[in-house]
Amino acid sequence: MQRLTTYRYLQLFLVFMSVLGMSFALLFLQRYMGFTPCPLCIFQRIGLMVMGGFALIAALWHPKSTLIKLGLWLGSLLGIVWATGVAARHVWLQHLPADQVPSCGPGLDYWIDTLPMQQVLNEVLAGSGECASVEWRFLGMSIPEQSLIFFSVLLLVHGLLLWRILRPQPTTR
């Protein structure tokens, strides 16, 4: 069990979970089920990819320096915190009363082409009517609710990873 909680195995687990999450979103939800991701879903995927990218660098490089490990951990953490925050916002939008749901606006492509990036972020995070619709449920949960649980587990893994980075190494004689 202790071998499975080493720095490298935890990083590989994060990479695997990132690939698994992205594969589920792309292959099952988009290709098989035919859903088009809303802007908030796309931003969640970006956070998951950032986490997976930093975890992959850490797993392949396996740095010895605690400072470098912390830097890679922080990059990975920021990615998953972003994804978790966006998923929480998405869940909140889905639970708004129908009269308080924002109206649908133009698509993300239009915003990126016509607005400055800061305003695109503001518009996406404000949400729209398409983000509040629930098209599919599994075990009684919408896709953003499932994503929020998935990302929360990955946050817990980041806590374990931080413990592995900071805990004092046993001295050998």
If you had to describe this structure to a student in words, what would you say it looks like?
This protein has 173 residues and is mostly helical. Helices cover 71% and strands 2% of the residues. It has seven helices and two strands, in the order ααααααββα. It has a two-stranded antiparallel ribbon. Strand 1 and strand 2 (141-142) form a beta hairpin. The radius of gyration is 18 Å and the shape is elongated. The two termini are 25 Å apart. The mean pLDDT is 82.
Number of helices: 7
Mean model confidence by pLDDT? 82
Outline, from the CA principal axes? elongated
Order of helices and strands: HHHHHHEEH
In short:
This protein is mostly helical and 173 residues long. It has helices at 7-32, 39-61, 66-94, 108-114, 117-126, 129-132, 143-166, and strands at 137-138, 141-142. Helix 1 packs antiparallel against helix 7 and helix 2 runs antiparallel to helix 3.
